[in-house]
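User: Quick sanity check before I run a bigger batch. Here is a single chain. Can you write out its predicted 3D structure?
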Amino acid sequence: MPVVRPISVRLEREVDAEVRDIARRDDRPLGRVINELLDRALRMRRFPGIVFVEGPSGARAHLSGSGLDIWEIAALARAFGSPEKAREALPTLSEADMRLALAYGGTYPDEIEERIRRNERPMEDLMREYPFVRKIPA
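Assistant: Done. Predicted structure follows.
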């Protein structure tokens, strides 16, 4: 468990109201929400061009303007055998974009590997988890 240092912070009224609304809506402790928002802000500052998007599976690191999550770019680089070959398949992805995505993935490998692992689950596992899903014949 990470070491937590308590601090006292005065939030502007609008910021306080929005953060409390997120905590209430997500049914999570206020301190955890504030910590996650700060963590994301620090990551975006460290990796300009990375943003976080919310979805059914939670917040995901995303390459702004690309339509791709960072885990997807990492998985493509792996599947094609190299970042260069993955870029050939995705010509809209610049070399700088690829470097940024892979640098983020290298800094937060557990996050990226967990996303890749969840995406590669066998169909049987998915159908057990989501019984309403039907496999479409190829």
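Helices lie at 13-26, 30-46, 70-80, 83-89, 95-107, 109-119, 123-129.

User: Great, the batch can go ahead then.
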